[in-house]
Amino acid sequence: MAELRGARIMEIWTTERLTAQRLKHADLDDLVALHLDPDVSRYLGGVRSPAVTTAYLATSMAHWDRYGFGLWAWRTPDGKFVGRAGIRHVVVEDAQEVEIAYALRRPFWGMGLASEITKALIELGFQRLGLSSLVGVVLVPHAASRHVLEKAGFLFEREVVFHDQPCVLYRKLSPEAPGGVTP
Questions:
Q1: In sequence order, which residues have a C-beta less than 8 Å from that of residue 130 and are 6 or more positions away?
Q2: Strands of 81-92's sheet in order across
Q3: Percent of the chain having pLDDT more than 70?
């Protein structure tokens, strides 16, 4: 489990084009719509029912309560829901990891928003949380997501099975970690 240099991080914050707010019950309808979109969900292991998304939201909120960080709902300045993304603890093949995770609505694909979010999450994970490593776990055929991670300096580490799906694991070390590289 990761050691943290602070109890809690920002529940609401902004990047150049987006606002992030800690996931809450009010985000359920937006998350359900995101998870029911077959184009989005094909990279999340399949379409998720409203009941599964409700449980997902409860798990995400519990992660915040336990660790002081987690997933945020991301919105445009005029309040349009872009998607959900954040940093969370996961177990990958019996190893504890901290993952950058993101899923964006189709209208926001190809605009560089996943890269903007990923860059902000890396900074948050390394500088605010003091993490030594972050991973990205991506379904093998999801080339766009793999590209986002590679562009952000994540390196391919290995193929893994995650939630019974063939995936690839990418890793980025903090510049301050042994073996880390200064960006």
A1: 3, 4, 5, 6, 174
A2: 12-14, 19-22, 71-75, 81-92, 95-104, 133-139, 165-173, 155-162
A3: 91
- Write down the pLDDT at residue 174: 92
- Whole-angstrom distance, CA of residue 155 vs CA of residue 149: 8
Amino acid identity of residue 179, one-letter, is G
* 9-28 average pLDDT score: 92
Query: In terms of pTM, does the model score above 0.85?
Result: yes
Question: Pick from 93, 84, 103, 95: which is nearest to 43 by CA?
Answer: 103
Q: Residue range 113-134: average pLDDT?
A: 94
Q: What is the mean pLDDT of residues 126-154?
A: 94
Q: Which two tokens stand for residue 11?
A: 């529940």
CA neighbours within 13 Å on the CB side: how many for 142?
Answer: 25
- What is the rounded distance in angstroms from the CA atom of residue 30 to the CA atom of residue 105? 10
Residue with tokens 């809690």: 8
